[in-house]
Amino acid sequence: MPKPTFYQLPKPKRQTIQSAIESVFLNKAISKITVSDIVRAADIPRGSFYQYFDDLDDMFNHLFDTALVAYENEILSRVRDRHHTVFSYLRSSFDRDLVFLTRTPYQKILTKFFSSTGHHGITYEDYIKRRDTFFETLLAHLDTTVFSGLEASRIKKLYFFIVQFKMQMLQGVLKQRQAHDEAKQHYEWFLRLIETGLQEMN
User: Fold this and answer.
1) I need a surface site. Which of 22, 79, 106, 135 has the fewest CB within 10 A?
2) Measured between alpha carbons, how far is 140 from 84 in angstroms, rounded to an integer?
C-alpha cells in the first residue's frame, strides 16, 4: 500500500497521480507497465514514485484496493438507512450498477486485474477473501428472511450466481448486444423465478 508520504500530498496532486495510474493501467498491458510510464503520465520525478510506493506491485495493490473500496462504498450507500430485502435490493441495483459502470473506471480496473493474473501482486484468492468479507457486511443491512433454512454457504453461492447473471446482462447493454429494457426484463424474470422458488421451499 502507499507510503504515508502519498497520503500527505495535497489532494489535487494526489488525485493527479491516481488518475495517471488509472489511465496507464487501463491503456497498456499490465505486463508492460513500467515505473517510467507512471512518472511520465503523472509528470513527477522518478524518485517521487519510490517515495510513494515500494514498487509496481505495491502500486497495483493500491489500485486494486481503491477500485474495490469505491465499488463497496457505492453498494453500501444504497442499503444504509433503508429497509431492503435481498431481492428488493437486487431489483433496484440494475440501473444503479449500470450508471456506476459507465461513469467510473473501477469495474474496468477490477475486470482487467482478474483477466491478467500473474502480472501483478494481486491473486484471485485475494479478491475472493475480500468479496466474502464484504458479502457478510452487505447481508447485515438486508432482510434475509427469504433465505430461512438455507445454509450460509448456499446463500452465498446463490447470491453470487444472481450477481453473475446481472453482470452478464449489464455487459450486454454496455456492449450494445442487447437493449436496456430487454436485459432488465430478463434479469427481473430471473429474480422472480429464484424468489418464487425460495418462497415455495419455505
Assistant:
1) 135
2) 11
Q: Rounded to whole angstroms, how far apart are CA atoms 36 and 44?
A: 10
Copy the grid coordinates of residue 13.
Answer: 496532486
Q: For the chain, state the CA radius of gyration.
A: 20
Residue pair 97/170 in contact (Cβ under 8 Å)? The answer is: yes
Query: What is the rounded distance in angstroms from the CA atom of residue 9 to the CA atom of residue 27?
Result: 25
Tens digit of pLDDT for each residue in 42-93?
999 999 999 999 999 999 999 999 998 998 999 998 888 778 999 999 999 9
138 contacts 74 by C-beta, under 8 angstroms: no
Sequence spans of domains, the chain = 1-54, 56-201
CATH code matching the domain that covers 1-54, chosen among 2.40.10.10, 3.30.450.40, 1.10.10.60, 1.20.1300.10: 1.10.10.60
CA distance 28 to 32: 7
Q: What is the pTM of this model?
A: 0.80
Distances (CA, A) of 94 to 26, 119, 169, 188: 24, 32, 9, 9
